[in-house]
């Protein structure tokens, strides 16, 4: 399967008009009347009770935002003198343990873990690399790279470079530069739309370098407008598929 088909047609997501939309996405919202110390105490009791009170552990962690869970971790460490992750790891097992420990990671830490797993062992889980790297903004990419370095003492870009090849490697490394432009450049919308068309529909084969340059470096709102403009005429089926997933992160996932 070609790079354009695998990376762009099937899975690339372009974000929302601005970050304010992102804040309204998802179903987990900050719990009202939140108190990290109280939650930490309840979790400590649930962990120590005979048989482990799994229901209480689940009820607290899934109904708190990620930021609130990070505060609970700090409160638990302060009150008990040990990491919440260690206490839960000793108390739980199986899939529940995996899910609960994942909930305690920051988004950047979780992304870093999944990228590491995608490149572990023989073969590469390209779908995971695409899903994560193609759907993160500049700040998320930078945070992810930092988390990867802290956890694995390795450079994410170097691991990606060593585990991929060709145009696929090129586009991932371009994304990892975290150099997407901010906002919309009106002067470039028309030329970008035309360049994408000519690199795909307008020629035999596809010029991946053009797709990489534009789709990996322009802001998501800019790309939304460029793709919408080109869709007014004949459009490469690749761009049509991209356009269907341009609007929101929810439509991608």
Automatic annotation (TrEMBL):
Signal peptide: none annotated. It comes from the Eukaryota. Coiled coil: none annotated. Gene3D superfamilies: Annexin (1.10.220.10). GO terms for cellular component: cytoplasm; nucleus; plasma membrane; vesicle membrane. The keyword Repeat applies. SMART domains: ANX. PROSITE patterns: ANNEXIN_1, ANNEXIN_2. Keywords: Annexin, Calcium, Calcium/phospholipid-binding, Repeat. One of its GO terms (molecular function) is calcium ion binding. GO terms for biological process: cellular response to glucocorticoid stimulus; fin regeneration; phagocytosis; signal transduction. Belongs to the annexin family. A pair of annexin repeats may form one binding site for calcium and phospholipid. This is Annexin. It comes from Tetraodon nigroviridis (Spotted green pufferfish). The lineage of its organism: Eukaryota, Metazoa, Chordata, Craniata, Vertebrata.
């Amino acid at each position: 399967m070609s790079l354009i088909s695998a990376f762009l047609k099937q899975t690339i997501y372009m974000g929302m008009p601005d970050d304010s939309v992102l804040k309204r996405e998802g179903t987990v919202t900050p719990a009202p009347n939140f108190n990290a110390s109280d939650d930490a105490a309840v979790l400590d009791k649930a962990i120590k009770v005979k048989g482990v009170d799994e229901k209480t552990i689940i009820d607290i962690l899934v109904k708190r935002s990620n930021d609130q869970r990070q505060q609970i971790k700090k409160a638990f460490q302060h009150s008990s003198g040990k990491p919440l992750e260690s206490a839960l790891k000793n108390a739980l097992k199986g899939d529940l343990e995996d899910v609960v420990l994942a909930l305690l990671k920051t988004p950047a830490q979780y992304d870093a873990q999944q990228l590491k797993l995608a490149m572990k062992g023989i073969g590469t889980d390209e779908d995971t690399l695409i899903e994560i790297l193609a759907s993160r903004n500049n700040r998320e990419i930078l945070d992810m790279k930092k988390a990867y370095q802290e956890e694995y003492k390795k450079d994410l870009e170097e691991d990606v470079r060593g585990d991929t090849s060709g145009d696929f490697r090129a586009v991932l490394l371009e994304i990892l530069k975290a150099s997407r432009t901010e906002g919309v450049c009106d002067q470039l919308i028309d030329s970008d739309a035309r360049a994408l068309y000519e690199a795909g529909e307008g020629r035999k084969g596809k010029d991946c370098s053009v797709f990489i340059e534009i789709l990996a470096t322009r802001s998501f709102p800019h790309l939304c407008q460029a793709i919408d403009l080109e869709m007014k005429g004949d459009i490469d089926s690749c761009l049509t598929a991209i356009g269907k997933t341009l609007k929101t992160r929810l439509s991608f996932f």
